[in-house]
Design brief:
Blueprint (H helix, E strand, L loop, with lengths): L1 H26 L2 H7 L4 H6 L8 H9 L3 H7 L3 H36 L1
Length: 113
Amino acid sequence: MLQSRAYFIVWTMITFILMLILLLPFAASKQTVLAISPTCVSIIKNHRECPMCGMTRSFIAISNGHFSRANQFNRGSIILYGIFLLDIIIYGIYSIRFITNKKKTSNATFNLN
């Protein structure tokens, strides 16, 4: 029980970060998002793009509905965005079930006394 609770806490923190990543392009302007995003270390040191290069611009494009532009920035962006979104949806479903089951267990314990 304690181990599964620890996993849930870690999952909650990761999902919260993913929600911030996906919501930031909706809450802030493109210039703000690009300004707070770090410059890729691979570009600075090696003058070459890494597999994650273009992901910030891609996520901004996806948030604006420009999927072909997002694919040009980084070919894996749509898949990664989908995985992030899927995690958030699964977390929401799991959390609702967890809270509902906890209330049922709490009510059953209360009624036994």
